[in-house]
Structure formats: structure tokens, C-alpha cells
Design a protein that fits this description.
Elements (H helix, E strand, L loop, with lengths): L1 E9 L22 E3 L6 E4 L5 E2 L3 E8 L3 E8 L4 E8 L2 E7 L3 E10 L4 E10 L1 E8 L9 E7 L7 H6 L10 H12 L3 E6 L3 E7 L13 E6 L2 E2 L14 E7 L6
Parallel strand pairs: 1-3, 4-10, 11-17
Antiparallel strand pairs: 1-5, 2-10, 5-8, 6-7, 6-9, 9-10, 11-12, 13-14, 15-16, 15-17
Length: 251
């Protein structure tokens, strides 16, 4: 008996990439890992992209004989599992969480079982705004950053100072991703008390402990950040504004 499955990636109108110069997810197909069956039962999944902006995946298929189809999904934020008994066609619709989604599909006839697993990365966007406030030879900038929340792009820097990276994506991760993709130099500071901070962006600014402005301070979605970049979470569609000045201090 053979079981055929087809994967259709649906783009919702609110989930497509925004207009502007953003990085398009790779068209490289996702790797599918098959668990060998001890019988003639076979399970097929068609090729689909390893990365997507889509918030929804519809997995469709059919079976030539009655079988229990089970799908399992695991991400940073949630776990999902669902099953249905299928005599012919079957379909699952699942919500992709931002970042890596590990998905497995299992067919079970009671006498035979086959499983295939794959990973889909849902890429998301955030916005970085730089206000240089008249700093010589610098212009204000607004840039969209496409990132994988599961990557933890700044993690190697924590290993270098024998510190543990938080178990969630941070503003620091967003900055490291942007620095790499935009080829903009960011000078980070670090202390055992406050973690990482930003000293200079594109050569402008001073360390906060220097006593001499201008300094870089930031807000998220119009609200002053209550934490440093090492601890401040970042989520899809955040607008992170970096302001070069006195950080509200009266000098």
C-alpha cells in the first residue's frame, strides 16, 4: 500500500513580505527525513521551501486504504498534535510559529507505520530606525530586517564572555543580523553587570560609561526599553528606534 501526501504553502494576505529591500527566503527545498518502514507501507511528501513568510501550511494527501494520519509540530513557542482517520483524501491546516517549525507526519494502518519529518522556517520582519540628530556626515535611516527568530544570531558573542544567551530572541540578535546583512559596523560593549550594549553605530556615538555624549538609546514600538539589548525580547513587526543624543539626561 502507498500513501501519497502533497504540501501546499499558502500565503495569507497579512503575512507576505512588506514592500522594500528585504531579503527573500531561500528557495532551497526543505530536507525530508524518512523513518524506514518495516513493511511495504510508504509515505511521500512533495518538495516545499525550507523558508517562508507564510503563517499557514496546508498538508494534503490521500491513502489507498484506511489509515490513521497524525501530524506533530514543535516550535520555540508551542507544540501541536492532531490525528484523523482517513479512507481516501485527508488534510491538515497548521499555524506556523515564527522561526523553526519541526513537523512530522505519520501514517499508521495498525499493521504498518511510516513517518517523515521536515523543518519549515517562518521568517519574520522588524524595523530598525536610526536617528543621528545632525551627527556630521550621517543621515537618518529606516531599514527592514528579515530574520529567523530561532537563530539567536548573537549567541557566539555570549560564549566568548562565558555568558548564557537567553532562551528567546533579543534586540541584540536583531542588531547582529542587521549588521551582517546591511554591512553596517556596530561596536558593542559588555559588562558583567549590564550585559551587552551599543557604543557606536556606523562610527557614531560613545560608550554609555564614557561620561561624554552622544550615546545611543533605544525604544521599541514607541516605548522606552526597560531592559538592555541582552534581555529585551524582539518579536515580529517590532519597530526599534535608536536615538543618538543624551538619552534624556540633563547635562
Amino acid at each position: 500500500m502507498k500513501i501519497f501526501a502533497f504540501v501546499l504553502i499558502l500565503l495569507l494576505s497579512g503575512c507576505a513580505s512588506p514592500a522594500g529591500p528585504v531579503e527573500v527566503p531561500s528557495s532551497v527545498p526543505a530536507e525530508i527525513v524518512s523513518t524506514p518502514s518495516t513493511t511495504a507501507l510508504e509515505l511521500y511528501l512533495s518538495s516545499f521551501p525550507a523558508m517562508t513568510y507564510s503563517a499557514v501550511v496546508v498538508i494534503e494527501g490521500n491513502v489507498s486504504e484506511p489509515a490513521l494520519i497524525t501530524i506533530q509540530q514543535e516550535s520555540m513557542e508551542s507544540r501541536y498534535s492532531n490525528s484523523l482517520q482517513a479512507d481516501a483524501q485527508w488534510e491538515f491546516t497548521i499555524q506556523l510559529e515564527p522561526g523553526e517549525n519541526n513537523i512530522s507526519v505519520t501514517a499508521d494502518t495498525g499493521a504498518a507505520q511510516a513517518t517523515e519529518a521536515m523543518q519549515i522556517v517562518r521568517m519574520v520582519n522588524a524595523t530598525i530606525v536610526l536617528q543621528f540628530n545632525g551627527y556630521p556626515d550621517r543621515e537618518d535611516r529606516t531599514e527592514t530586517v528579515t530574520y529567523n527568530p530561532s537563530e539567536f544570531a548573537s549567541a557566539p558573542r555570549y560564549e566568548n564572555v562565558n555568558t548564557t544567551h537567553p532562551d528567546y530572541p533579543t534586540i541584540h540578535d536583531l542588531l547582529v543580523t542587521w549588521e551582517r546583512k546591511a554591512s553596517t559596523d556596530i561596536e558593542f560593549s559588555h559588562s558583567s553587570s549590564f550585559g551587552f550594549g551599543v557604543s557606536r553605530i556606523d562610527g557614531a556615538g560613545n560608550p554609555l560609561d564614557s561620561g561624554a555624549p552622544p550615546w545611543w538609546c533605544y525604544s521599541v514600538n514607541g516605548e522606552a526599553a526597560p531592559f538592555g539589548i541582552s534581555m529585551m525580547p524582539v518579536v515580529a513587526e517590532d519597530v526599534v528606534l535608536w536615538d543618538l543624543g543624551t538619552c534624556g539626561m540633563i547635562l
